[in-house]
Amino acid sequence: MKKIVVIGSLNMDLVTEVNHLVKPGETLSATSFSALPGGKGANQAAAAGKLGADVHMVGKIGADDYGDELLKSLKQASVATDGIQIEKNGSPSGMAFIQVSSTGENSIVLVNGANNNFRPHDLDAIRGVIEQGEIIILQLEVPFETVVMAIDLAKELGKKVILNPAPARYLPGELLKKIDLIIPNEIELETLTGLPAKTENNIYTAANRLLASGAGKVIVTAGDRGCYCVGEGTREHIPSEKVKALDTTAAGDSFIGAVAAGLSEGLTERKAIDLAVKAAAVTVTRKGAQPSLPHRGEVEDYFS
Prior knowledge:
ATP binds at residues 185, 221-226, 252-253. Homodimer. It contains eleven helices and 13 strands. The protein has helices spanning 40-50, 65-76, 122-125, 127-132, 144-156, 173-176, 186-193, 200-212, 251-264, 269-283, 296-302, and strands at residues 4-7, 11-17, 32-38, 55-62, 79-87, 94-100, 106-111, 135-138, 160-163, 181-182, 218-221, 227-231, 234-238. A hairpin with a 2-residue loop joins strand 12 and strand 13 (234-238). The radius of gyration is 18 Å and the shape is globular.
């Protein structure tokens, strides 16, 4: 089995359940509140770990109770935490303020905290962890210069690089050429390319723009519409599994972690995506980020 290294963010998700997402100027009473481990990087690591992959997490947390909870949650998901550094300058662990509506929609505001202090020079101390991995997963919730250096290091070491470009931002062509697999959602695809991504044809056109800019392969996640896979001369729509969604917060992270887990155990890319579609479907039937991520047996049982 190939080892996976996830480089990215760790956040404590502060989740309020509401009847509808709050509008500008509106004050709204929540129906519940919870504090749950999250962060795109940590979620993707936990998703892969729960599915049986050999995963190491790389990132930074604060010296606080939330940081302790984040470490504990990853260890419970069978994720190695030897690449996680503790910030000594007083910055708190990252936090995400999340609203989840009664229909499962969400909105998120990030307080980056210690994630913002994960700098390129920090990679030197955990180079050995990165060297162990064969599949490297990154997002954009830590400083961009750290992401760029991590990708450069991964390619120097001959690793497969998977990028989840979230939060969305412009990516230069010289960086895209180093990405083996990029996994945006529709909104992120629009930001990356400047093209609409509302319809299937829109998505294929925009994804081909990323390929033309140098990306190796593109998988666009599209919520309950499933995903769109685009490679050189190939394209395919894979529909979602039909379930009743309670909370979509970690759906994309579940999908990405599952794709990596499948690839790490030698599945074909298509079979890895099938696993990811099923894992994401189970995820949205549960509440929370990491607590909603399923173990392999739970995915198999759900669709048996």
